[in-house]
Amino acid sequence: MFVNIADNDYTPEAHSGVDFETAMGRIHAVLPDGTVIKNVEVFRRVYEILGMGWIYAATKLPAIGWIVDTLYEIWADWRLTLTGRPDLATIISDRQKRIECKTLQRCRLSDEEA
Questions:
Q1: 75-112, pLDDT tens digit by residue?
Q2: Coil, helix or strand at residue 39
Q3: Three-state secondary-structure class, residue 36
Q4: d(CA 94, CA 98)
């Protein structure tokens, strides 16, 4: 099951302790037993479940796996900038403001919500 971490009601406690900032920094998955996996391992597992494990099979080889893992780390660090989105600190701050606004019920509606 996919979880929308951007939802204001997202809680780390319901997702093996993976908080919003951590989840936004790198892809994570919570296995049925509560184990948390992250990075390219998530894609390997998803594609195996879908019966398309061959797509990531080569990444199980140590040298290729290290290269792919390293490339993913670079992508994860730069993906927001490269896709024209605000940096992680801004996204976290904006989310916190939305949550506080909702909790305090004192914020006016934005143009999108009006």
A1: 999 999 999 999 999 999 998 888 888 776 666 655 45
A2: coil
A3: strand
A4: 6
